Amino acid sequence: MKFSKAVCQSCASPILRDYDKGTEKGGGHSEAYCRRCYQVGSFTDIKMTAREMHDRVLVKMTELKFPRYLAKLMAQNVYVLKRWEAEKSLAVV
Ligand SMILES: [Zn+2]
User: Fold this and answer.
1) d(Cα 31, Cα 38) in Å, to the nearest integer?
2) What string of pLDDT tens digits covers the 93 residues of the chain?
3) How many CB atoms lie within 10 A of CB 12?
4) How many helices (H) and strands (E) does the chain have?
5) Residue-wise over 50-60: b if at least 16 C-beta within 10 A, else e?
6) Distance, CA 8 to ligand 1 centroid (Å)?
7) Residue 23 forms beta bridges with which residues?
8) DSSP-based three-state secondary structure for 67
9) CA pair distance 49, 25, nearest whole angstrom
10) Which of helix, strand or coil describes residue 42?
11) Ligand 1 centre from 34 Cα, in Å?
12) 29 alpha carbon to ligand 1 midpoint, in Å?
């Protein structure tokens, strides 16, 4: 599955405005990651794994009362994001 540039490549949340973007060391906006995941050139939670991000998205979507199948689908999308490329093979469907 292919994604537009407008979702964070770490947590899959939509990036709609510059405000939503993470920041680079030099002070510019990150084109790949959102502000919750990426600040001043590095990930805010550097030790996080794809599995943990998957679970976090699932919990968040469930909290937001998305239907279960949709929450699972969104969470599964985490595995195709750029940040987790190396961990893709670990995805369990
Ligand atoms: Zn993010």
Assistant:
1) 11
2) 444 558 999 999 999 999 999 999 999 999 999 999 999 999 999 999 999 999 999 999 999 999 999 999 999 999 999 999 877 666 555
3) 21
4) 2, 4
5) beebbeebbee
6) 5
7) 29
8) coil
9) 23
10) strand
11) 4
12) 13
CA of 19 to the centre of ligand 1 (A): 13
H or E element at residue 43: strand 42-43
Q: 90 is written with which tokens?
A: 């670990």
Phi, psi (rounded to 5 degrees) for 65: 65, 30
What one-letter code names the amino acid at 18?
D
Query: Distances from the Cα of 19 to the Cαs of 10, 35, 51, in angstroms?
Result: 17, 8, 27
Which residue is it, tokens 């949340």?
A: 13
- Judge whether 48 and 15 are in contact, CB under 8 Å: no
**Residues around ligand 1, an ion, CB closer than 5 A:** 8, 10-11, 34, 37
